[in-house]
């Protein structure tokens, strides 16, 4: 499998955009991360292309990612940011920027950093999400709490035309070794909305084991999601450089390959690694 699309890559430049969540961060993440740093590792890990995903709730971060996408052919798409609390501005930016940018394939907001777990249900935000649905632009949900899944349920019911991607599987209770608790109950409800998909990503850091995490730590949760959502609604992403908190990029992909390889035959693995991402984000592959 040498045609994997890594659907979750971050790049940031502290001089180009403001990253509130990095202020005072004492980890290895608190520096610039350029795509050129990751590029050499793509071939080693069997990655054919990557998607850049927003890391700040501002336009500057999105503009940086678009510059990177123009410079590197292996960047196949960008999940950017829009001011969802201002629907008029969302419409204006879509008409003035999104439609002219072939790399822009989706939108995300760092809802897990909002004090209001129901942030997505604010009326102006819902109005913006309706605009995204009308424009056939998907939305990535970066949730970490059961309340975030409850919100996804309500958004899916209110806006059935909006495609939603659950980043990092909404952080399953891996560290607690819980199978599957409230997370599992809510995922069994969410999966009934066919416009909601899952991104197998960010699981190494979720284990809480540093670089000592293994395939066995995450396999039950991946298997559960595949059972609920089906192979046809799951994709995979590395979450670099956040994933470096749990070991190397190569280790992340080696572990995902081991889990998915044990659970699925080659044809279905290809769906997870490539075909589903192309379908969900409407990627234009060479």
Automatic annotation (TrEMBL):
Belongs to the metallo-dependent hydrolases superfamily. This is L-fuconolactonase. Pfam families: Amidohydro_2 (PF04909). SUPFAM superfamilies: Metallo-dependent hydrolases. Transmembrane segments: none annotated. Gene3D superfamilies: Metal-dependent hydrolases. Residues 5-283 form the Amidohydrolase-related domain. PANTHER family: AMIDOHYDROLASE (PTHR43569), AMIDOHYDROLASE-RELATED DOMAIN-CONTAINING PROTEIN (PTHR43569:SF2). It comes from the Bacteria. GO terms for molecular function: hydrolase activity. It comes from Parapedobacter indicus.
